[in-house]
Design goal:
single chain, alpha+beta, binds zinc ion
Length: 158
Amino acid sequence: MVRKRAREKARSTRARSVSEAIPAWVSTSFSKSLSGRRGRDTRPEKALRRALHALGVRFRLHVRLAPNLTADLVLRRHRLAVFVDGCFWHGCPRHGKRNFTGPNSVLWERKIMRNRERDARATRFIHSAGWRVLRLWECVILADAPGCARRVMKLLGR
Ligand SMILES: [Zn+2]
């Protein structure tokens, strides 16, 4: 009896762990091409910094505003946080990948969705602290960094 129950328990545990299993990332050429693309000092970040410097705007880089929340660029005196959002990771409406294929498709979709949710939460959090937030897409900066710098200037009232 005891043994039977133990067997049943083992079976039900096994069944549960299989149904709840989170699919594991599979290394593909696509995922390999993306590793290392995320992070600081990206091309759009550098372009925006250069354009702001050219206009004489001073700012601080990579400022932690809360645990797990770092702004790419901060103008503390003006209470302004600027984020440079990569088209892929943040799901740009024009360049974000929409239909993932391959063994990781569900994981990719989930990951991008979570990033977008995190961005929205961060924006709300910063607003609630009485700061302003400017989010700039990578593609917009790469197309017109001086124009983006002017948008920052406008928020500074210059
Ligand atoms: Zn884009």
